[in-house]
Amino acid sequence: MTAVADPPRSRRRAGTGRLAAALVSPTLVVLGLVVAYPIVSAVRLAFYQRNDGVDPETGLLETGYRFVGIDNFADMVTGATAGRFLNALWNTTTFTVVGVAVEVVLGVLMALVMHHAFRGRALVRASILVPWAVPTAIAGLLWNWVFQADGVANDLLPGPAILWTTDGLQAWFAVIIADTWKTAPFIGLLVLAGLQVIPQEVYEAARLDGASPWRQFSSVTLPLVRPTLLVAVLFRILDTLRMFDLPYTLVGPGKDATDTVTVLAFEEAVRFGRYGPASAYAVFLFLYVAVVAFVFVRLLGADVVGARVGRNR
Amino acid sequence: MSTRLRSALPYLGIAAIVAYCLAPFYWMLVSSLRRTSDIFDSGPIPSPLSFESYTAAFDDRNGFLRSLLNSFIVAGATTVLVLLFATFAAYALARLTFRFKNAVLALIIATSMFPGISLLIPLLDLFSDIDWINTYQAMIVPNVGYVLPLAVWNLTAFFRQMPGELEEAAQIDGCTPAQAFRKVILPIATPGVFTTAIITFIAAWNEFIIALSVVNREELKTAPVITSQFTGTTQFDSPFGTQMAAGVIVTIPLVILVLLFQRRIVAGLTAGGVK
């Protein structure tokens, strides 16, 4: 880690420590204000509800918040809207599992193709960045247009027109397709970077030992790109768990098939102004994401810090 | 398999990838160049060519031009602030030795994993209290917080690639650590800072949920938000052509950046960031 030479340590220390503190603190202050404070505040809000009734004694409209204990969380899983929440949780999870799996397979395929092509690399690199650069909200509108009842997707497909953007399983597929389009090339790019650092001699040795192409892929390539892939997969999973833009602009909110937990929380907070229940959804999502990240780092050994900043050493 | 087919295979693969990546974007472009009356045509080339949708997108009623300006203000201010903070932090994390260094780095990385909605709701509540709803800063400040971790990693990776003797040499020449940073490191790090600036700008330009939540006055909305809320001349008329034209315009600055700096962007993304 610390390959940076530290010559006369004693002389350097005093100045360095203070300099480091001065340099890092603005970032920590910003993250404290925009990330740490809101998280704490969300946890607090999740135990409150806005007063919206009329005070029985004074007859005045009540304002402000009141403490409701775990009511918001209890309502989330057993109340009148529990169905919507559990459904959104199901969508969030299936989008993540299916979407990321498809994206990883396609991304690895793309990386292998790019790795073996010697011409046209610049063209491929430029075009692979296009889906990444298109704003997700705009990508949602684009796919909404492609998936219109008399749009180009139905023109290309045989059989009767499918109402992709209304609701139902087809809307779920539409979101998966759009998400795959936008992110599989990006996984390809990252895996390609991982492939390029594998020394050619490893493959030569495998060939001398008589390994088939498939065997070379499964016993050499895959284990060696595993660290890169694991981090890419982790960050894609975390991204998909908080998915909002695509279902919101491609299908629209309030749809059983595509509402995610984030869409639900957004609707509660922004459209209905119910910050308490919305915070309960948000806190739940936060915990869900934390558990998934923990499992990845601890059980699968995703070396996030090392892969991100140490790979090029 | 014949040898000819075998040698053509990689090129077929390349062609498939290029088509996969560009076809939907091409469709957006083609649709935006059709007349409203033949918007449902499915030919690969618009005929006749028409800029009707672009004129409609820039119609005063839509406020699209203003929203582009808003997007530039928000993404530009975010980029400047993020670079300022991230350059300092990344330098310290990559090249100085101090206590809790790895803990600080892990903490910064952890913040990027938080789901945006968990931060957005309390901020919304806070912004209503301090009258920040419908202001630029309500979009810029959360945006800075969201993009900052990404920029810190990118720059940390760049700073680490530079030879370790740089500060030593500067110190021998009598520089303090702060002077070494300013006079020796920063000038050499310019390409890394530039790449991070592009990636930060693209991330900030594409931000949607914050801008959608903290602003409801038309004249402050950003381009992606305005585009997603276009309405037709009548209630039942979905303005697809107009939306595609606006989508092309919102995306074009990014596509130009990508074409110009593809090598650097790829290097930056694979060295430091995954988003």
From TrEMBL, chain A:
Superkingdom of the source? Bacteria
Entry's localization field? Cell membrane
This protein's name: Multiple sugar transport system permease protein
**InterPro entries in the record:** MetI-like, MetI-like_sf
Which residues are listed as membrane-spanning? 19-40, 94-114, 126-146, 171-198, 219-238, 280-301
Q: How does it sit in the membrane?
A: Multi-pass membrane protein
Q: What does the similarity note say?
A: Belongs to the binding-protein-dependent transport system permease family.
Q: Where is the ABC transmembrane type-1 domain?
A: 89-296
Q: Which CDD domains match?
A: TM_PBP2
Q: Sorted alphabetically, which keywords does the UniProt record give?
A: Cell membrane, Membrane, Sugar transport, Transmembrane, Transmembrane helix, Transport
Automatic annotation (TrEMBL), chain B:
Identify the domain of life. Answer: Bacteria
Q: Name one Pfam family in it.
A: BPD_transp_1
Q: Which UniProt keywords apply?
A: Cell membrane, Membrane, Sugar transport, Transmembrane, Transmembrane helix, Transport
Topology class, membrane: Multi-pass membrane protein
Question: Record's InterPro entries?
Answer: BP-dep_ABC_trans_perm, MetI-like, MetI-like_sf
List all membrane-crossing ranges: 9-29, 68-91, 103-124, 136-155, 184-205, 240-261
Q: Which GO terms describe its biological process?
A: transmembrane transport
Q: Does the keyword Coiled coil apply?
A: no
List GO terms (cellular component aspect).
Answer: plasma membrane
Q: Where is the protein localized?
A: Cell membrane
Question: What region holds the ABC transmembrane type-1 domain?
Answer: 68-261
Asked whether the keyword Transmembrane helix is assigned, the reply is: yes
Q: Family, per the entry?
A: Belongs to the binding-protein-dependent transport system permease family.
Q: What is this protein called?
A: Multiple sugar transport system permease protein
- The species this protein belongs to is Actinokineospora auranticolor
